[in-house]
């Protein structure tokens, strides 16, 4: 017995298969594939939302807990300022971020995404990118402002 006949195959997709099957020009091709794949146990499931999971993991991994020791020098350090603004158009999407240290050092960064995104998605991607940069710079306190459109 071949491997794929012995196991269930789960296909995660974000494509609306019901709408595609309703169109006569594409449903003929899909029926041919359905016959070919019919001998296998193929299940189609909606792809879970990944961005919210990644954001939840990021927040969970970077949120202090009771078990973390408090840094005695933390109160002596200043608060970094972080600003994000994202935008998108028909052909591309991107965002700008500014990270400013308490002593006046400023990091300005422009991001261009290789995927289509709404304004809010671009802003969230930029927020995560900037927080990752701040983490690499060992920033302890940060105040973020996101311009949501």
TrEMBL record:
It holds the Pfam family RVT_3. SUPFAM superfamilies: Ribonuclease H-like. GO terms for molecular function: nucleic acid binding; RNA-DNA hybrid ribonuclease activity. It comes from the Eukaryota. Residues 85-143 form the RNase H type-1 domain. PANTHER family: RIBONUCLEASE H. This is RNase H type-1 domain-containing protein.
């Amino acid at each position: 017995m071949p491997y794929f006949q012995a196991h269930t195959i789960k296909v995660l997709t974000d494509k609306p298969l019901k709408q595609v099957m309703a169109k006569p020009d594409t449903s003929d091709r899909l029926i041919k594939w359905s016959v070919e794949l019919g001998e296998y146990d193929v299940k189609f499931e909606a792809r879970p939302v990944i961005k919210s999971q990644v954001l939840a993991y990021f927040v969970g991994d970077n949120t202090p807990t009771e078990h973390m020791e408090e840094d005695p020098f933390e109160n002596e350090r200043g608060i970094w300022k972080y600003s994000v603004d994202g935008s998108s158009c028909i052909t591309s999407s991107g965002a700008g971020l500014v990270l400013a240290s308490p002593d006046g050092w400023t990091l300005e960064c422009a991001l261009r995404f290789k995927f289509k995104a709404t304004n809010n998605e671009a802003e969230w991607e930029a927020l995560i990118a900037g927080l990752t940069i701040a983490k690499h710079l060992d920033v302890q306190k940060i105040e973020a402002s996101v311009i949501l459109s």
